[in-house]
Amino acid sequence: DPLPAHRPVRRDAHRPGVLRGPSMPRKGATPAYAELVAQEAIPAVPDIRPLDKKTVLGADEDVDASTWSTREVARWLASLGLGRHAQAFADHRITGDLLHVLTEAHFKELGVTLVGQRAMLLQETARVYRGAVQKRRFRTIWEADGLLYVHGCGDWFVKHLCCVPCCEDPDHYKLTGAQLYVTELDKKKYRGQCCATSKHNRAIDLSNIVGVSDFHKNTVCDCGCAADQITIDLDKEKGLEDVAPLLVRKGQGADIARRIQAAIEEAQSLAPGKQHMLRM
Fold first, then answer.
1. Is the distance from CB of 134 to CB of 126 less than 8 angstroms?
2. β-pairing, 199-205 with 209-215?
3. In the predicted model, what is the mean pLDDT of residues 8-12?
4. Mean pLDDT throughout 196-221?
């Protein structure tokens, strides 16, 4: 009897470089994603290139998945070896800011039939969510030096007479997604106007701020150098030391106060144990 015809060795469509020998498909097996695309049964997501290994493994520190488009979600899936499901995620408009709200039931509806793969997706979506939160918590929202002249021209004259600009650095403020950093005069070491050179740094957790307000006090001969003042009210029940008013340029107080308030509200929404939508 003649030998059976030789069946050529084929390359695996999902694992480049891996060869598959002759084999019979399992009974009831569904066609692979690449085969469905070849049959034009479903459209292909064009040019899905996996995210590099460093990006995926370093998600806790470096990746803000909340900004991912459906294309970047497809690349992320390919990096996990789940590129065959990329089209389903794209069809359902799954972007990065929605990943962390997906449940096992959602993954099953998206066609992820294997329990192990669904468990991996739950683990990985939690990890990229932590990375997104960390990225947002430590980004700088606003940073500036405080003004030396609170009360306009008269204050300018007195402080120049006492050589304050020569021996005193201005306060410095920095607002991040988690804390307000204030470099201010150390009152415990204060020895008078001409010796006010000692500063100390404070890192105020936004969860300890209960109120923000701004005001501008009109002064005689206000030539525009008088400062807007922003008052930060801390939670008195925690016994925290008061914060001196933030001194910012005239006309900027209201905007900066709104930015601080918005950062406080976002920090509260990202508190552990809560589920939310991450939006830029």
1. no
2. unpaired
3. 48
4. 82
Is it the case that residue 25 has pLDDT exceeding 70? no
φ, ψ (nearest 5 deg) of residue 142 = -155, 145
Percent of the chain with pLDDT over 70: 59
Instruction: Say how far apart CA 98 and CA 116 lie, in whole Å.
Output: 21
Q: Which amino acid, residue 21? A: G
Sorted by sequence, the CB contacts under 8 Å of residue 142 that are 6+ apart come out as 173, 174, 175, 256, 259, 260
Other CB atoms closer than 10 Å to residue 29's CB: what's the count?
8
Pairing mode, if any, of strands 199-205 and 179-185?
antiparallel
* CA 171 to chain CA mean position, Å: 27
The pLDDT tens digits for 107-149 are 999 999 999 999 999 999 999 888 888 888 889 999 999 887 6
Of the candidates 86, 88, 99, the one whose C-alpha atom is nearest the C-alpha of residue 128 is: 99
Backbone angles phi, psi at 176, to 5 degrees: -115, -175
Backbone angles phi, psi at 204, to 5 degrees: -100, 115
| CA separation for the pair 66, 136 (Å, rounded) | 10
Max Cα-Cα span within the chain: 113
The DSSP call for residue 12 is -
Cβ atoms of 22 and 91 closer than 8 Å: no
Min mean pLDDT across 157-161, 162-166, 178-182, 193-197 is at 193-197
Which pair of structure tokens corresponds to residue 201? Answer: 């740094």
Backbone φ and ψ for 247, nearest 5 degrees, come out as -105, 110
